[in-house]
Amino acid sequence: MSGFEHPAPTASLMHSFAEPDRFSSALLGGQFDIMPLHDEPFSATLRVLRVGDMIVQHADTSGHVSRGGIAPGIAVLMLNMQVTDRPALVNGVEVGTTEAVLATGGAEIAGHAPRRLRWAAVALPLPLLEELAEVATPHVRVHGAVSGLTLSPDRATRLVAALSSAGQLAEGLPALFHLPDCAAGLAMALREEVAGSLTAEAAFTPRPRAVGQALRLVRAAEAFMEARVERPVYTEELCAALGVSARRLHDAFRAVLGTSPHAHLKSRRLMLARRALLRQRNGPELVKSVALGHGFWHLGHFARDYRALFGELPSETLAARPAPGTDRDTNARDPSGRLHQRNRQP
């Protein structure tokens, strides 16, 4: 999904997810790929809210690694909504409770959330960002860039409060969003808070040169591995192809994705195997053929690693796969209690 091409709600819609692919496809503002971590089975909730010409998304997600890109013509401001002793990484930079990330159309995003995380994102048309940037510091880049912002504690608190209040208002009093004056007032207040986050009191954090080099190396390594996803790719082969040492490759993956190249590739292949199992309909040798087709030669190790990542055995995924036209996630429910089919895009 990219941009705002799907109809957006005038009030909050809450969705719950058990499948990372369903969650990533529901996110607005770009295209994203989510891979869970081994600590716990994946789960997430997502609230989508339209406020004027901005889209606010609140999410609560289990630990994960994410890759993706921001859609052309869109700018996204992302921030952490909770205190944690293990901050999330976005493009190799820590994002705590006084930091935010501004990403503009065409920018690539690599994230690592080591544990459960509550976060929010405000997506807005690029012309609106350009308008707001007129009162911002000269460091705002409005095309294909990812910028880190360090906010003052007061500004960070105000921005989090504004986003939280918008969601609570939509959930508790959804009828107010049908009143033009109320909706316009909320949109203007939120726009002012976003603009305030870009002004001179915010410090734009320059990306260290080493982080940029690590991002480029990870992109090259992923391209090489994904072209050979049907078989294991070992560190020696990857290093030889990229012309780097094992230490440099390992450090780059740790800095950007919080994991090793080997672990990242294994998780990626497990995700592809899961997608294959969810697509299949029958066949007594299906689990074995899917495992072998994705480079897992030891079926016992495959089952163990699969359960560690997804909380169930491959055979259980196959047995519980949804019927055509449904999925394993819960339905979406709006604040009034009406059910919406989960396959309806926000």
Please compute the radius of gyration using only Cα atoms. 21 Å
In N-to-C order, the SSE pattern is: EHEEEEEEEEEEHEHHEHHHHHHHEE
What is the count of helical runs?
A: 11
CATH superfamily of the largest domain: Jelly Rolls
Number of domains: 2
Which structural class fits the helix and strand makeup? alpha+beta
CATH topology tier name of the largest domain: Jelly Rolls
Q: Which whole number gives the mean pLDDT?
A: 78
| Strand arrangement in the largest pleated sheet | 1-3-4-11-6-9-12-13
Largest sheet: 8 strands, antiparallel
Q: What share of the residues lie within helices? A: 25-40%
Shape: globular
CATH class of the largest domain: Mainly Beta
Instruction: Indicate the low-confidence ranges by residue numbers.
Output: 1-10, 331-346
Distance between the amino and carboxyl termini: 11 Å
Q: Count of DSSP E strands? A: 15
Residue share in β-strands:
15-25%
CATH architecture call of the largest domain: Sandwich
Question: Keywords for this structure?
Answer:
disordered N terminus, alpha+beta, 2 domains, 5-stranded antiparallel beta sheet, globular, Arc Repressor Mutant, subunit A, Jelly Rolls, 346 residues
Task: Summarize, please.
This protein has 346 residues and is of the alpha+beta class.
Describe it:
The protein has 346 residues and is an alpha+beta fold. The chain has eleven helices and 15 strands. The protein has two domains: 13-207, Jelly Rolls, CATH 2.60.120.10; 210-319, Homeodomain-like (Arc Repressor Mutant, subunit A), CATH 1.10.10.60. An eight-stranded antiparallel sheet has the order 1-3-4-11-6-9-12-13. A five-stranded antiparallel sheet has the order 2-5-10-7-8. Helix 3 packs antiparallel against helix 4 (180-197). The longest helix has 20 residues, at 153-172. The protein is globular, with a radius of gyration of 21 Å. The model is unreliable at 1-10 and 331-346 (pLDDT under 50).
